[in-house]
Design brief:
about 90 residues
Length: about 90
């Protein structure tokens, strides 16, 4: 028997042992919550990256649509003038 690692429980009160058990349970709960929050954080980071990519794509498409509409608006007066002259 190793006397340095042996726990002699008769030196501890029942209340102290239950306090240690309660503390141990709370530490286990905290560890579980920490892991759950890390998983959720990783998932949120992935969702954020996906949404940022989608946002960039939609922004590009909107800019392209704006350029096409602007080009069409520039051509409308020229087309109208050509029809009036004919």
């Amino acid at each position: 028997m190793n006397l340095l690692t042996e726990i002699d429980l008769h030196y501890y009160s029942g209340r102290m042992i239950s306090d240690f058990q309660l503390l141990s349970e709370k530490i286990d709960q905290l560890a579980e919550m920490t892991q759950a929050l890390r998983r959720e954080n990783a998932e949120l980071r992935l969702n954020n990256a996906t949404l940022a990519a989608t946002n960039a794509e939609l922004s590009t498409r909107m800019h392209e649509a704006h350029q096409r509409v602007s080009a069409l608006l520039k051509n409308i007066p020229a087309t109208t003038r050509n029809e009036e002259a004919a």
